[in-house]
Amino acid sequence: MRISRKATSEVSSFSHRAISIIQKIPRGKVATYGQIAAYAGNPYAARQVVRILCSSSEKYGLPWYRVINRKGQISLRPNCGYEIQKALLQKEGIKFDKNDTIDFERYLWTAS
DNA sequence: CAACTGACGATAG
DNA sequence: CCTATCGCCAGTT
Predict the structure, then answer these.
(1) Are A31 and A66 in contact (CB under 8 A)?
(2) pTM over 0.85
């Protein structure tokens, strides 16, 4: 097994894995930053996911709008993509309650 | 090369 | 429940 991984971590681009995961989010579902980070290997690396989404969303054609925060809400600030994301999600059939919160019970994506 | 920043999250108080 | 703090990695400055 010639594992050349460092003992401290598994390496292999956390980013690349995160990207693969993000691309797996099915239409009509959403995932949280922490979720993706956890699947990529680091439950605490939610922030990196943000960076990836921000810098590689167009490059890799990532469904960035299907990624939201832990509260089930959109993290973007109004007038900064917030409404765009919300519109895209609603277009896929995702509903928001009166608090602009997404119902995880119905829409949260879980890896198989 | 060091410091800062980022659409966050878990934990502690 | 809410606020505060630390941590995560990578890309920028």
Answers:
(1) yes
(2) yes
